[in-house]
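Data deposition worksheet. Section B asks for the primary sequence of the deposited chain exactly as it was used as input, without tags or linkers unless they were present during the calculation. Section C holds the resulting structure in token form. Section D is free text for depositor observations; keep each observation to a single sentence. Incomplete worksheets are returned to the depositor.
Section A, Depositor: J.P.
Section B:
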Amino acid sequence: MYIKTKKELDFIKINNEVDRVFSSGNAKYGIDIIITPHKEKRSLEQNNYYFLICSDISNFFNDAGIVFKKAKFNGIEYPIYWSSNAIHLFNKTIFGINTTTRLTKKEFCEFMEKVFELWIEKSLEYTKGLKSWEPPLPLYKMEF
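Section C:
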């Protein structure tokens, strides 16, 4: 539960939630109630921007004719092209995060700086220095 001010604290709602958990039979050993300061998570606008970037990166590599990988099926080799999802999974793996959802706005901006650096470097590597991917918008636009 998120509350912004002490005035918003709704003991009836909390009590109802406690009753629901105990009556579900899942509270054999009791319940945990943890109160922590709220951290502002990355915004939906930042998430949309991130997937725009992933799409832009995948389009760059596909337009440059760089195949993500090749797969054989019935003895025939087929190209598998880049996708925004492939870029997203690659980013999460490289930078060791499970999800961007839990990142604070500041952590998300730091993550994006690393994403930009990685894909600019990879674009030069994969095109043998001929082309460089460039972000469509500057990083400062992400701090919504």
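Section D:
Residues 44-142 form one domain.
The mean pLDDT is 86.
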